[in-house]
């Protein structure tokens, strides 16, 4: 396995004023660090979330902005992403928020060769998806008219890895490809060429 694939860390910043539904059990055993950015009105957290924060303490951090007002939390979150990017330029940076104001920051990061995305829900982060969710994500990706589809298995595998921020294990990659075959989305010829049935 590519060393960079095995070591790439996914940094997930949750705009907790905007999104509170977070299934932290999805991060178990994954190369993931989650930072909850809390607004002034979130002085108390649900007990169920606190238990999960304790369970995954090595992978989770809390940041209290201590400020209110338009975009106060956004600016603090942006500062923490900048610090994480400086410490790990090869990371994959995710913002979990329905606030489209973050899209300018994401576009700026992407323009500077940084893996970054804003997602409306926690479970949409590719590295956190289960096999069925990954298969659905790949099918949706290949149904896009803008996508160039790999012609051989040897190029399909890195294309799928790139879609998931090069964070899938070899087992997860094989499961995803087998899931695509089971879903009759693709098949392979004897020479390893990909036949798409989407």
Secondary-structure blueprint of this entry?
Blueprint: H1 3-7, E1 10-15, E2 32-38, H2 47-55, E3 60-64, H3 72-87, E4 92-96, H4 103-111, E5 115-119, H5 131-142, H6 153-163, H7 170-182, E6 186-188, E7 194-196
Parallel strand pairs: 1-2, 1-4, 2-3, 4-5
Antiparallel strand pairs: 6-7
Kindly provide the radius of gyration, computed on alpha-carbon positions and rounded to a whole number of angstroms.
Answer: 18 Å
* CATH architecture annotation name of the largest domain: 3-Layer(aba) Sandwich
Q: Helicity level, as a percent range?
A: 25-40%
Binned strand content: 15-25%
Number of helices: 7
Written description of the protein model:
With 198 residues, the protein is of the alpha/beta class. The chain has 7 helices and 7 strands. The protein has helices spanning 3-7, 47-55, 72-87, 103-111, 131-142, 153-163, 170-182, and strands at residues 10-15, 32-38, 60-64, 92-96, 115-119, 186-188, 194-196. Strands 3-2-1-4-5 form a 5-stranded parallel beta sheet, with helices on one face. The chain has a two-stranded antiparallel ribbon with strand order 6-7. Strand 4 (92-96), helix 4 and strand 5 (115-119) form a beta-alpha-beta unit. The protein is elongated, with a radius of gyration of 18 Å.
């Amino acid at each position: 396995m590519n060393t960079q694939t095995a070591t790439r860390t996914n940094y997930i910043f949750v705009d907790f004023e905007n999104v509170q539904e977070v299934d932290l059990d999805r991060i178990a055993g994954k190369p993931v660090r989650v930072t909850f950015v809390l607004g002034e009105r979130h002085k108390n957290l649900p007990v169920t979330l606190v238990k999960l924060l304790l369970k995954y303490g090595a992978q989770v951090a809390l940041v209290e902005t201590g400020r209110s007002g338009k975009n106060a939390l956004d600016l603090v979150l942006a500062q923490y992403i900048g610090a994480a990017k400086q410490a790990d330029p090869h990371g994959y940076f995710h913002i979990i928020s329905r606030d489209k104001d973050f899209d300018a920051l994401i576009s700026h990061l992407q323009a500077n060769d940084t893996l970054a995305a804003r997602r409306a829900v926690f479970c949409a982060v590719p590295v956190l998806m289960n096999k069925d969710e990954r298969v659905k994500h790949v099918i949706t990706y290949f149904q896009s008219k803008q996508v160039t589809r790999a012609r051989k298995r040897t190029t399909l595998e890195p294309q799928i890895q790139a879609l998931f921020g090069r964070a899938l294990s070899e087992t997860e990659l094989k499961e995803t490809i087998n899931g695509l075959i089971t879903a009759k989305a693709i098949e392979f010829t004897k020479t390893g060429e990909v036949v798409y049935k989407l």
